[in-house]
Write a structure and sequence with these properties.
Layout lengths: L6 E3 L2 E6 L2 E4 L2 E5 L4 E7 L2 E6 L12 E4 L5 E4 L11 E7 L2 E5 L4 E3 L7
Length: 113
C-alpha cells in the first residue's frame, strides 16, 4: 500500500491511497479504479484515475468531486477512439490534461468542459 504525499489546500490536505481519496484523515470517496493524481482547484478536487485501468474502451478518467466526495463532473475525452484516456495533468492552473490520442485539452475546472 502506497500513501501519496498529502497536498495542503484550502479544503485541507488532499491525499489518496489506491482507490481512496482523503481530505486530512477523512476518506471522502472510493473509486472503481486507483487514483493517479488529485488536487484542489477552485474549491473542487480534481481527480485523475489510473490511465492504465481500462484500455479496452474510451475511459473518461478525469473528474471532479466536492469536499463531501460527490461527483460534480466527468471530463469528456477529445475522441471516441478505443483506449483514449487522459494520461497526465500538464497544468493545474489553467487545468490542462494530455490525452492518449495526442490532444492537449484545456478544461474548465468548474464545469469539466
Amino acid at each position: 500500500m502506497t500513501i501519496h504525499a498529502p497536498r495542503m489546500h484550502q479544503l485541507g490536505m488532499v491525499s489518496f491511497d489506491g482507490r481512496e481519496l482523503y481530505i486530512g484523515s477523512e476518506r471522502i470517496a472510493t473509486f472503481d479504479h486507483a487514483v493517479a493524481d488529485a488536487f484542489e482547484n477552485r474549491s473542487l478536487i480534481i481527480v485523475l484515475l489510473d490511465p492504465n485501468a481500462n484500455l479496452k474502451v474510451p475511459f473518461p478518467n478525469l473528474l471532479a468531486v466536492d469536499e463531501a466526495g460527490r461527483q460534480v463532473w466527468v471530463a469528456k475525452l477529445p475522441t471516441y477512439k478505443k483506449a483514449d484516456v487522459y494520461y497526465k495533468i500538464a497544468s493545474r492552473d489553467p487545468l490542462v490534461a494530455y490525452s492518449f490520442s495526442c490532444y492537449d485539452c484545456k478544461i474548465d475546472p468548474l464545469t469539466g468542459k
